[in-house]
Amino acid sequence: MKKIVLALFAISQIVVAQNKSKIDTTNVHELQDVFVTANRTATLRKETPVAISKLTAKTIDETKANSAYEIVNKTPGVLMVNLGNEQHSMAIRQPMTTNAYYLYLEDGLPIRPMGIFNHNALLEINQFNLQSIEVVKGPVSSLYGPEAVGGTINFISLKPGINPEFKFGIQGDHFGFRRIQAAGGATIGKIGFHIAGISSLQENGWMAFSDYRKDNINVRIDYNISSTTRLISNTMYGEYYSDMSGGVNEIDFNNRSYKSTSDFTYRKSDALRTKLTLEHDWNPNASSYLTAYHRNNKLGQNPSYGIRWSAINNPTTATGEINSNNFKSYGAIGQHTQKFDFLNTKLVAGALYDFSPVSYWSYRIDLKANLNPGGLTVNNYEVIAERPDIKIADYTANIYNTAGYAQLSFNPIEKVVISLGGRYDNMKVDYNNALDQSIGNKIYDRFTFKAGANYNPFDFSGFYGNYSQGFAPPGITSVFRAKPRTGGTTGVPAEFYYNLKPATFENFEIGGWFSFLQNKLNFDYALYYMEGKNELLNVRLENNDTDYRSAGETRHKGIEFGISYKPSAQINFRLGGTYAQHTFIDFQVSDKSTDALQNLDGKEMPNAPRWSGNSELYYYPNWLPKLRTSIEWQHVGSYYQDQINTVKYSGYDVFNFRAGYQWKAFEIYGNIINLTDKLYAYNVSRANLSTSQPAYLAAAPRTFVLGIQYNFSLKNK
């Protein structure tokens, strides 16, 4: 990767030399009121009947983040949970969860195919290659298909600049993290290119057994065939390896003894994504594009979350697993946009085809559990034996995804915009399950619909309302995972979850925005009510095993809000947050007659803080024009650790400080993360038994990040 960085620098110097006398620099205009993700085309905010936020290039650049969650969490209503080393879960109109209720896009294309969701997919994102991030909250399955339920995050990559530009930087912290990053590009004649690479390394950090490395490179080439036709190529390749330290027990957490219970767990990933897009403008009112793409992902792990231990049943033993999940994708998506004079109508329609062969295997490992005094928690685990003879899953499958969608917007009367959209998805899985030696297919299909309206009575305010549907089919790793009560038992055929159904959601919301004091004070809000059915739940059986069922019902309701105020060029302030309630409606958790609790009806979902938010105060002093400073406040309210609502975690308030100074072409910057050195955890969870102990996913102590970046852009005087 370091060779790639050096090559980028050399390329930039060649480009500079070739273009020094003829290239002019253009300003980058951040059109904060224009969005792409919500309608698949560039659309004004006042014509978009959804809750959507945009993180601009300026915000991304000034954050100087080590991990993507530091940027994404600046969005009102969003809590991206740091699981360490760029691993993560998410909470958008849902509790903190790893469920397949979020869609992650890169330039409008899903990072994963339907049916192979991975909550850690964003660790493949190159933070040094981002132009902006758009976040749509709530279901948009009518445009993007399954898994676009709680929210959709679109990472929009940097495009080739008209002028040669190059930036190179290094940053690191005092806990052993360091990163080299470089990006450059230009337009020469009809061809533009942009290349961005990062190489990250963590060694000997504050948490034991938490090293990781990540190398990413993104390459984009634009060929402007004519003024109306463009050919665009995008390629991303990344390698990732991380220790998986897991959580710590309550005593170690309070003592700030950040030791890992396992020194053998890991996650490794190799990812390739490439696509070729042909765009054509037929006339000022009509445009089309066709994209062909390919993905190649290899993921292997010995996950810390896969360790199973009970303080009641054989407390000195435990089990884990080693698994491998590999897939390729070959697909195409085409879209046409047509505008009509009649009622200012716009039609967006498209179709998608995706073929993704996948292979997956998982087998058990036997562990010894060395207990702490009292026997209620584990000091550390030791690997006793790998058991490839005891398979948890072993299958190959061909996944065929086909979809067609259309969205229509029009102005029936002045200042009112109506939007209607629908999409049909069909996922067919042809499988070969080695464990029960079965060959067959499963089909998950659904039509999803949305309807919305915008009303903009004044230049300074607007309102919207919408109804939208969402759905998420079960991940195929859940379908083909052997049931614990039979899987791996000698002489007894394994049983599987062939009967799981897609989860479905209905969402109702209203919202709006206001702008005062000549756009210096802005306020936006959204109120939503969403119900989910057939959600995956774990049911405790008479023999104490756990069974998966798609039968749960939940309710999610809340308000999201954002305020920004810029009284002068020196001061800028934003405040954003959400108040939400996530409740079990019909959620059976036990078939065991001796269990006092059979269902969770009416209880709050665990890991679901009612209040969360992120605010920031920026200061750009006139007395030192090249200096920037900001202080950020992240708030996460209290939430239940368990499903039965007996124990709460108090949540946390943490402050971060950022500063940077531009001197000629160099930028020197520093961040202080967790400014007050607060002891807190990103997540705390526990099982439902009275003897269950909490697992703390500890956050880092006060962290000092320092960096320097060289920014070059050629300007013709």
Account of the 3D structure:
- By secondary structure, the protein is mainly beta.
- The N terminus is likely disordered.
Give average pLDDT, whole number.
90
The residue ranges in which pLDDT falls below 50 over 5 or more consecutive positions are 1-32
- What form results from the Cα inertia axes? globular
What is the CATH T-level topology?
Maltoporin, Chain A
Going by CATH, the architecture would be Beta Barrel
**What oligomeric assembly is this protein in?**
single chain
User: Rg to the nearest angstrom?
Assistant: 26 Å
Give the N-to-C terminal Cα separation. Answer: 35 Å
CATH class: Mainly Beta
Subcellular location: Cell outer membrane
Main location: membrane
Organism: Flavobacterium magnesitis
Protein name: TonB-dependent receptor
